[in-house]
Amino acid sequence: MIWPAAVPVDDLVPDPVPIDAAAVTEWSAVLDDLQAHLDHPDASLHYWAPPPSLGRLPESLMERARTLVAAQSAAVEQLILLRDEAAAELSTLQPVRKNATAVYLDVVA
């Protein structure tokens, strides 16, 4: 049986993705936009979608993106808590009386 030649370990490590300055610039602008929405949530409430030309996240911005995702997750958790508190408060404001029949009759008017 013929075995293939051993592959050097250096050949198994993929080449690093070259840094694309345009991608870093575009991703930086996107992350800035997302951070601005996180810092000022009432400024504009709209659906966010990534630009269609946005490519792969550069390695140099990976940690910033992870930090932003964690901050967004914390903000979502806070909003869920606030929503649940508001729902609980609103449920206490429901009328106690269930029937809609009149209790008093105005015979003077």
Description:
With 109 residues, the chain is mainly α. It has a domain at 20-43 and 58-95. Helices cover 50% and strands 0% of the residues. The chain has three helices and no strands.
Helix-strand layout with pairing:
Blueprint: H1 9-12, H2 21-39, H3 62-92
Helix pairs in contact: 2-3
List keywords for this structure.
rod-shaped, 109 residues, single chain, 50% helix, mainly alpha, 3 helices
Shape by Cα distribution: rod-shaped
pLDDT < 50 runs, ≥5 residues? 1-7
- Bin the strand percentage: under 5%
Structural class: mainly alpha
User: Helix proportion of residues, in percent?
Assistant: 40-55%
Distance between the termini: 110 Å
Mean pLDDT: 78
Per DSSP, the total helix count is 3
- Largest sheet composition: none
Order of helices and strands: HHH
Number of strands: 0
What is the rounded Rg? 29 Å
Task: Please summarize what this structure is.
The chain is mostly helical and 109 residues long. Helix content is 50%, strand content 0%.
